[in-house]
Amino acid sequence: MIKIMKYGQVPNSEIFARVTPVVDVASIVADILSDVRKNGDRAVLAYCAKFDKAELDTLEVSKQEIDEALSFVEPEFLEILKAAAANIRAFHSRQVRSNFVIADKPGIVLGQKVTPIEKVGVYVPGGTAAYPSTVLMDTIPAKIAGCPQIFMVTPPGRDGKINPAILAAASIAGVDRIFKVGGAQAIAALAYGTESIPKVDKIVGPGNAFVAEAKKQVFGMVSIDMIAGPSEILVIADGKSNPVHVAADLLSQAEHDRLASAVLVTDSEELAVAVRDELERQLPKLPREEIARASIENNGKIIVAENLMAGIEIANEIAPEHLELMVGDPFAYLDAVKNAGSIFMGRSCPEALGDYFAGPNHTLPTSGTARFSSPLSVDDFVKKSQFSYYTADALASVADKIAVFAEKEGLRAHGRSVTIRKEGEV
Fold first, then answer.
1. DSSP string covering 2-46, please?
2. For the chain, which terminus, N or C, has the lower number of CB atoms within 10 Å?
3. Whole-angstrom distance between the N-terminal and C-terminal Cα of the chain?
4. pTM
5. Which residues are catalytic?
């Protein structure tokens, strides 16, 4: 049964306790990375046989396989995928940055140019699970950014095939090439390149502990989006909220993983008790009851706060991945929210809406990193270069100032590289 705590009456260490999974896979991952770097496709194929039980002749998904998958997917679901993709495109198109130029001083031109990342690798979990939503969320912003080459990796099933829903989503999103490989070996292949899989400049997408560790170890050779931790939801609900809805929303994250975190913050003791009881009623109805119950009982909590603004302060300290403001006027509290990955407003906006369909991205900062990081966006798929242009007269007008600055830092050659250009200096 989920714990109920009164804020101010229990230690803050309990209120703000966070799930800290202890999974030491660093050395295993390091060995896999080294093997793939040295042996390329041969190592990747061996790991596919070992971990996915799939005996493959080739790693790349063929056009025939994609066409076949599209024929297997129900027309209704294809239309849903297309509608979700349209919503994601509409939202992320507003994130596109423009080049700018400043030329408001004689002889000086300054500016910034935005360039898409050349090669992007998208990791999509697979095997026994299928996450076509991840394909859309992680690929469409890259397409909008203008990335010329987008490669997807995802583990095959034992039959050596990719789930048709994954391939359908990849086709709709515009993935250029798809490869049948998962785990740390997929990250290694993208980071180093193999005979079949091109080396990329950035890797995005969620995965298990091995994938997360591999992304951590290859960072610096390639860019990555983030290191994803267990899924989190925090619901702020007032006494007028429906406990049935609150409990359902908490369970929508609890079913992800035993380590997932589901938290309710409310100003109503009556609602706290009602939600606790409702969780016990709904849990037995879930196919993933065992996972959800472990999450709720080990990591879940209900925090009773003095008022809703105090609840917002608690949420800001926790900095959740998903934050629901299940109150009558959520916009009255929006400005007070400082730390959250994605915010769901009102009583009719469950987090699952954002997972699949609304348009904002579902690849979000976890483990409190919403204090300093952001959801995946078009910004993640571009790089910015700045440029400066000075005429000789414009440079001469500031040469002495630069020389003084350089002298202060003990870097006289810096200053001289400017002053030497003044007329008459040799």
1. -EEEEBTTB-HHHHT---------HHHHHHHHHHHHHHTHHHHHH
2. C
3. 82
4. 0.93
5. 321-322
